[in-house]
Amino acid sequence: MAEFTLELNDDQKQVRDWLHGFAADVIRPAASEWDEREETPWPVIQEAAKVGIYSLDFYAQQYFDPTGLGIPVAMEELFWGDAGIALSIVGTGLAAVGVLANGTEEQIGTWIPQMYGDADDVKLAAFCSSEPDAGSDVASMRTRAVYDEAKDEWVLNGTKTWATNGGIANVHVVVAVVDPELGSKGHASFIVPPATPGLSQGQKFKKHGIRASHTAEVVLEDVRIPGSCLLGGKEKLDERLARARERARSGGERVKNAAMATFEASRPAVGAMAVGTARAAYEVALDYAKTRSQFGRPIIDNQGIAFQLADMRTRIDAARLLVWRASWMATAGKQFTSAEGSMSKLFASETAKSVTAQAVQILGGNGFTREYPVERMHRDAAIYTIFEGTSEIQRLVIARTLSGMPIR
Ligand SMILES: Cc1cc2nc3c(=O)[nH]c(=O)nc-3n(C[C@H](O)[C@H](O)[C@H](O)COP(=O)(O)OP(=O)(O)OC[C@H]3O[C@@H](n4cnc5c(N)ncnc54)[C@H](O)[C@@H]3O)c2cc1C
């Protein structure tokens, strides 16, 4: 019989403890400052690069952990430190995974090193899919990529929005429409190399939370890139488009909305980030409840407070189990027949929102001030139910997967 365990192995424990040390010693002490500055924390990213946390090697090691738990364990610890700074550290990974998943070996070897730079000259990357009129509804994307055969170049035009590291990245990965008739099946991903003319940063957003992470519009005006910047190459794209056209003609498989169908495998990682933020707020609230006295006794002596903490911890552990299940399934090649990836992201992100709100309440007036970290954690937690598919979209994906019905 196969051995079943939920215990991390020695290597995983070692990585977890090492990341926890970095989160506690470097990230958490810097969190308030960078939240107030609302700027990318370059010195912290550089520190992470120096110790090897900000690097493709580290990310790949966790990504290829055979149990699937490398990424969720890493995300939980880094986001326990601080969500905004941690997103600045792992944001490049989102673009890098796009290249790893769709790029040729040559593209991977050329572009991923330029996304990270090195410890003396740190670089960032951005993944640009969302647009002003195409958020949850990815199929309504308008950014166009047109092939100029004579020059073997692609020409990109459009406006991307909400791009993490958008405009300040060395390398941008841009999703664009190559065949508008095919909905999201007519999309392709492109590398925009450093300093390409025509790519500029639009508005930088002033945000409610994760303020140490840079979020901005990316404007593409006649951006010309070599044919070699199409991820996966032209031959593969032509074959894929021909298959999609054939299916559309024969009335076969419906052309699905990408927001409903993709990202299922990356969602547990966002769930793990949410678990990290929730755990951080819970720990602060637990300590506070044990030390703050009112009516002559610690406030945790009241069931009204103690039961809240019991519920908070139970939900956090349940969220982690859903995240670990989905991460294990993705790595083991199991099909998400019940949208388990979406389930994990939905439950963990809603948990982070509710647990951080309870933490603010348990700290009373102090919870409402910037003197204590739960105020920031509560603002940060709000992102998890929005990006990588909102909670409503997760519910749609789950309900459609379970029922097979086109629920709207
Ligand atoms: C800080 C931040 C960082 C981000 N980083 C990136 C990034 O790096 N790259 C990138 O490409 N994108 C990024 N995003 C974009 C993010 O993925 C989108 O914001 C998200 O997909 C939601 O799209 P939207 O904001 O347009 O909301 P909308 O799609 O307009 O949704 C608005 C509301 O309507 C609801 N809704 C929409 N459709 C339905 C439906 N069919 N049924 C029920 N309810 C529905 C939504 O759930 C939501 O509550 C980021 C966003 C933020 C805020």
From TrEMBL:
Top enzyme class: oxidoreductase
Q: What is its EC number?
A: 1.-.-.-
Where does the Acyl-CoA oxidase/dehydrogenase middle domain lie? 126-223
Show where the Acyl-CoA dehydrogenase/oxidase N-terminal domain sits: 10-115
One molecular function GO term is:
oxidoreductase activity
Identify the residues that the record assigns to the Acyl-CoA dehydrogenase/oxidase C-terminal domain, covering every copy.
258-402
Show the InterPro entries listed in the entry.
Answer: Acyl-CoA_DH_CS, Acyl-CoA_Oxase/DH_mid-dom, Acyl-CoA_Oxase/DH_mid-dom_sf, AcylCo_DH-like_C, AcylCo_DH/oxidase_C, AcylCoA_DH/ox_N, AcylCoA_DH/ox_N_sf, AcylCoA_DH/oxidase_NM_dom_sf
Taxonomic superkingdom: Bacteria
**Coiled coil where?**
none
Sorted alphabetically, the keyword list is:
FAD, Flavoprotein, Oxidoreductase
Q: Which cofactor does it need?
A: FAD
Family designation: Belongs to the acyl-CoA dehydrogenase family.
Query: Any idea what this protein is called?
Result: Acyl-CoA dehydrogenase family protein
In the record, what lineage is assigned to the organism producing the protein?
A: Bacteria, Bacillati, Actinomycetota, Actinomycetes, Kitasatosporales
